Amino acid sequence: MLADIAVECGKHESDGRMTTNTNTSDSIVASTWSNALAGPVGIPDKADVVIIGGGIVGVSTAWFLAKQGVDVVLCEKGHIAGEQSGRNWGWVRVQGRDTREIPMMLESLRIWEGLAEEIGEDVGFTRGGCFFTANSMKELQSFEKWVGIARDYEIETRLINKAELHERVHGSAADWSGAMLTESDGRAEPHKATPAIARAAERSGARILTGCAVRGVETTGGAVSAVVTEARSIKTSTVLCAAGAWSSMFCRSLGIDVPQLRVRGTVARTAPAAKVTDGNIFDERLGIRRREDGGYTVAHGSVLEHPVTPSSFRYFAKFLPALMQEFKIVRLSFGDEFIDEWNTPKTWDLDKPSPFEETRVLNPAPTQSVLNGIRRNIDTIFPGLANTPIVESWAGMIESSPDVVPIIDAIDRVRGLHVATGFSGHGFGIGPGAGKVIAGMLTGTDTGIDIADLRLNRFFDGSPIRPQSSI
Ligand SMILES: Cc1cc2nc3c(=O)[nH]c(=O)nc-3n(C[C@H](O)[C@H](O)[C@H](O)COP(=O)(O)OP(=O)(O)OC[C@H]3O[C@@H](n4cnc5c(N)ncnc54)[C@H](O)[C@@H]3O)c2cc1C
Fold first, then answer.
1. Which label site among 86, 192, 424, 431 has the fewest CB atoms less than 10 Å from its CB?
2. Which residues of the chain, if any, have pLDDT below 50?
3. Is the CB–ligand 1 distance for residue 84 below 6 Å?
4. First to last CA, the chain
């Protein structure tokens, strides 16, 4: 299935608008979601497990299940990695994470390390280190708390001074006071990694169906009995909703409340240029990481846009702690998204096209003012890159849970239904580890990683909602 798609070219209507196959050197990233999309073929009539969503969480879970001999089908409405998993910065880091994610993230780093060899494909993974720079001594001292957390988990995170930072990061004109550094953190290439894991899952026996929206789930006696796709139903007793930015809408159609909001991130890629760093640098003005092709993936360090929708009001109270924490970086935007969500039905007949077929690929436009800011900040911080052109830009909708860590759980009200979503702005790096843990949840196998704190009910049982890390 994936191979079929790779060779198709030309115009199509994958996201409701005519788009052109742009698989050229100036659209390396966008080729993930803009190549031609064929409808699904060979849909089986039954499976042990059906996964909804072909992002890194869905494909990693499919891969681990298939390796254990589980008969698994993955349905993706658009392209593998067409949404968040193909549009992210590519950072694979444990540094700065919420403690609830750390064991899963450390497992993920172990998987990333051996991934290319195990699946026989390049995923662009390398450990170049992760730097959170400090623009004042006060900011540098504020990192000490996380250095202490790192010590508890035997992670070699340390604070480095100005001199060491400038030795390791070349050509910076920034007046940094130092940085927090985790040398074992790394990066991978999103446009390569998720499709490569999907192909590995296929080789292990998983069936990966693209252009195949799941409209809903059928139940018998309160338990899942089938998944209804746009093409046909698949009988199953076990479903995983790994639908990224669509999980809340999907679950709501089944009467299950999954609090989730979206923020838009604008990202750009430069042409190859001199090496200023081999790793990832996060500064309040710039997020930058070296790319495998010798360029840089760059983004503004402190601008995320939240398109206000009816869900913003619905979930306002639950997201208030996160909004207060992020109020300096989250800009509210008022556009078509409000009307679009308002007009989207909450439930639909399963024998008619669903909202998931209407928007095959959530493909927001990058914001020009943010791109201008990225350009300015590159030139200010790395004057040596001032003549390096930005050759591609795109945007992605990050979906967040109220405490910005994922929800991984079985849903009591519909036996056999599970959800893995809300990975917020850091689900790419943790994706392979999450896949292993979720596969364990679905098969009842103990992976040694406790996910009790990631239960959905934490947002409804009176537990305090306290984000420990940023979006
Ligand atoms: C701009 C940006 C920068 C980021 N930077 C980083 C980073 O540097 N490091 C990091 O770790 N993380 C980063 N992230 C976050 C990371 O990309 C996400 O957390 C992660 O990719 C989520 O993976 P997922 O599989 O849960 O969701 P997604 O990748 O969004 O996949 C969900 C899929 O489900 C499909 N789907 C939805 N509904 C249906 C349906 N009904 N039927 C069939 N298919 C359906 C969608 O089409 C989609 O492809 C970033 C995200 C963005 C947008």
1. 192
2. 1-24
3. yes
4. 34
Q: How far is 26 from 265, CA to CA, in rounded Å? A: 20
Task: Give, to the nearest 10 degrees, the angle between helix 102-119 and helix 427-443.
Answer: 90
- Would the CB of 242 count as within 6 Å of ligand 1? yes
Closest CA to 367 of 441, 271, 264: 264
* Confidence at residue 272, expressed as pLDDT on a 0 to 100 scale: 97
Spans of all domains in the chain = 2-129+184-459
Q: Determine the residue type at 268.
A: A
Q: What residues pair up with 206 in beta bridges, in sequence order?
A: none
Instruction: Give the mutation target among 33, 63, 83, 262 for probing the ligand 1 site: most ligand atoms within 8 A of CB.
Output: 83
Structure confidence at residue 38 (pLDDT) = 81
pLDDT for position 26: 76
CB burial of 147-160 (b: ≥16 within 10 Å; e: otherwise) equals bebbeeeebebebb
Q: Please classify residue 293 by burial: count the beta carbons closer than 10 Å to its beta carbon, then call 0-12 exposed, 13-18 middle and 19+ buried.
A: middle
Please state the separation of Cα 165 from the chain's center in Å.
Answer: 29
Exposure on the CB side of residue 456, measured as CA atoms within 13 A: 20
Can you read off the two tokens belonging to residue 78?
């658009």
Using CA atoms, how far residue 21 sits from 49, 136, 201, in Å, is 33, 46, 26
The residues that bridge with 297 in the sheet, in sequence order, are 269, 289
The response to whether residue 53 sits with its C-beta less than 6 Å from ligand 1 reads: yes
Q: Looking at residue 6, what is its pLDDT?
A: 30
Ligand 1 pocket check for 57: Cβ under 6 Å: yes
State the residue for tokens 């869900």. 311
Q: Are 272 and 294 in contact (CB under 8 A)?
A: yes
Structure tokens belonging to residue 181: 């550094």
Q: Measuring CA to CA, how many Å separate 125 from each of 55, 60, 93, 109, 454?
A: 17, 16, 12, 10, 27
Strands 223-229 and 214-220, by their bridges, are antiparallel
- CA separation for the pair 44, 294 (Å, rounded): 43
Looking at domain 2-129+184-459, which of 3.30.470.30, 3.20.20.140, 3.50.50.60, 3.40.190.10 is its CATH number?
3.50.50.60
Say what the pTM is: 0.94
pLDDT at residue 302 in the model? 87
